[in-house]
Amino acid sequence: MRDSFANDLLSWYDRHARVLPWRIAPQDRAAGVQPDPYRVWLSEVMLQQTTVAAVKAYFARFTDLWPTVQALAAAPDADVMAEWAGLGYYARARNLLACARAVAAQGGFPQTESGLRALPGIGPYTAAAVAAIAFDRPAVVVDGNVERVISRVFAVEDPLPKSKPRLAALAATVTPDQRPGDFAQAMMDLGATICTPRKPACGICPVIAHCQGRRAGIAADLPRKAAKAAKPTRRGIAYVARRADGAMLLERRPDRGLLGGTLGWPGSDWTDAPAHTPPMDATWTTLNTEVRHTFTHFHLILTVQVAHVPTDAEAAQGGFLPDFAPSALPTVMRKVWEAAAPHFD
Question: Are 174 and 6 in contact (CB under 8 A)?
């Protein structure tokens, strides 16, 4: 099955490959144009838990600011974190910098999965993707799109995430030794454009002849997923203070933990019943509007308190920054600012 499946898929990809800013078109690759491993790696890190549509603008800004891995490695942490704001999963940004600096120190990216796995922040999926796409090394690349395709092609009814090892093993049975990079991208494109989560376009699928799920009439119901536990709700307090000279009270969150290394408003821990002492003596006003945000594992509701303070004010938590850019904040902190901003008009 491997050769016929791969041939059918690659023939389709040669005609219908998506045009993406980090991708080398199959025709250009066939003509000898080599992908830039930096751009491949950067795109794969950005695309984790994020859509292609959302990533394009971030990728363009990053590659304009830091066109090489050496340039990114030399960038100040705060600048990179500010550009990452809005992409979420901020541990990825910290790992991105650590990896860039390791690659720059050793003179370039390793070309093997094992060598890539040795770099900071690179797991099995990213190592396989970079090895295949950037260096055309035979590697089994399995993301969410590929899991969906494989579950349908082989009619795997065991639910995710328990079925992940089986899906990876089945993906290996159809991954060719030739053109593994194009094959990996073709599988991603197939899942993103035809073998979609809802209403798959089976009638135009290039591998319909191989699809056991289609023959069984269950393709659209796959992959099955185990029931998710309900997300808990946590609460917190965020303090927004502006000095008379316009400086805003902000703090840099610890490197480790949720939103690690990002700029944000001082506040309480996020718990079932938050209690917190304000970051400074001031007349604090509690807004009537709460800020709501959902993370991967919980919902968050923030009470926002605001204050105007004199130019010589000092804080026990955080510090006053004269140049405040809401775009440098992670999404939840931008929501806090949007709620608080009218108070400072």
Answer: yes
231-252 confidence digits (pLDDT tens): 999 999 999 999 999 999 999 9
**Prediction pTM value:** 0.82
- Torsion sign, CA atoms 102, 103, 106, 112: positive
Q: Which residues are catalytic?
A: 44
From first CA to last CA, the distance across the chain in angstroms is 66
Query: What's the maximum distance between 2 C-alpha atoms anywhere in the chain?
Result: 74
- How far is the C-alpha of 73 from the C-alpha of 16, rounded, in Å? 35
| Domains, in order of start, for the chain | 2-221 (1.10.340.30), 233-344 (3.90.79.10)
Residues 154, 158, 163, 167, Cα dihedral to 10°: 0
Distance, in Å, from the CA atom of 302 to the CA atom of 236, rounded to the nearest integer, reads 5
Cis-peptide, bond into residue 274, ω within 30° of zero: no
